[in-house]
Design a protein that fits this description.
Helices cover about 40% and strands about 15% of the residues. It has 11 helices and 10 strands. A hairpin with a 3-residue loop joins strand 2 and strand 3. Helix 6 crosses helix 8 and helix 7 crosses helix 8. The two termini are about 35 Å apart. The model has no long low-confidence stretch (mean pLDDT about 90).
Length: about 300
């Protein structure tokens, strides 16, 4: 991708927030003098808008996005009795957290919210594992890194690619080939050296959602429960993000399954990293559905 992201040097305060919140870590803050782009990572830009949403001076511009058309200003304060549409409009995927543990009582409220999620049909299949000890999350990270290091190596082997495609199916294979592998090729050196954490994002807490792989309709139920959990976290002043890199890593590591006490018969479908947001976003991002048809 020929990416022409730009920074207005005249208004940029060099606060570094854009570099902090970018999920691909495309920007670098050079001491306190300048924000620069990593040329090797510019093609990885997914135009998520995080950098523009957090920039206090509207100095950062992503190709194809505009402040007037694609964003809206955040309210100054989120009141406890905020209306539903205000709450969902102000909820953001958070990947930068304060170094502060999440109290157990807040995690319990998030789990309670998930119990309100309606299943497709009974009995309820969703099972939850809550990791409230940040040290456990840190210990799990090297095992996750190994899974993706092995995946990148396997995708370089034509014969291994055939087996991977057969195992995961055409749709997931395209995601692995076009998104996961390019991302990991760029990020693995920093992941291995401990400079970055693309996977768990230094989150103080994590919730895993899993179910018996032979059960019916469990994936839809888990995705609905995840949505309830994220809205509850936002209402409680917490931030979080669904990390699609985590479930496959656990599925492909016996050590991770043991570490998180995942039953042998279960498959991990979803995950959410949680914590207190490190930064406050200045504006929300407008999005359009691919299509809306009225009949």
């Amino acid at each position: 991708m020929n990416n022409t992201n730009s920074i207005n040097r005249n208004t940029c305060k060099v606060c570094g927030l854009c570099a902090e919140v970018c999920p691909m870590k495309i920007m670098i803050k050079n001491d306190s003098t300048e924000i620069s782009f990593r040329q090797d990572r510019l093609p990885l830009c997914i135009k998520c808008g995080q950098c523009m949403a957090v920039c206090p001076t509207k100095s950062f511009v992503v190709e194809g996005l505009s402040y007037s058309k694609d964003f809206f200003e955040m309210p100054d304060q989120i009141a406890p009795d905020i209306m539903f549409f205000n709450m969902i409009a102000t909820r953001r995927a958070v990947r930068n957290f304060k170094d502060k543990p999440v109290p157990k009582e807040l995690l319990e409220k998030i789990v309670q919210a998930m119990t309100f999620a309606p299943p497709g049909f009974t009995p309820i299949k969703t099972e939850i594992t809550i990791i409230q000890d940040a040290e456990v999350v840190r210990k799990a990270l090297p095992h996750m890194i190994k899974v993706y290091d092995d995946l990148v190596a396997a995708m370089n082997n034509p014969i291994a690619r055939i087996f991977i495609r057969h195992k995961v199916g055409a749709a997931k294979y395209k995601t692995i080939k076009n998104h996961v592998v390019p991302l990991m090729k760029s990020r693995l050196p920093e992941l291995k050296s401990g400079k970055e954490d693309t996977i768990t994002r230094h989150a103080p807490s994590m919730i895993l959602l899993h179910a018996d792989r032979n059960a019916e309709n469990y994936e839809t139920d888990i995705h609905i429960a995840l949505t309830y959990g994220f809205l509850a976290a936002h209402a409680l002043g917490l931030g979080g993000s669904a990390m699609d890199l985590i479930p496959p890593a656990i599925e492909n590591s016996r050590e991770l399954r043991r570490m998180f006490s995942i039953p042998e018969s279960n498959t991990v479908v979803g995950s959410m990293i949680l914590g207190y947001p490190k930064y406050r976003y200045q504006r929300g991002i407008k999005r359009e559905l691919k299509g809306v048809l009225w009949i």
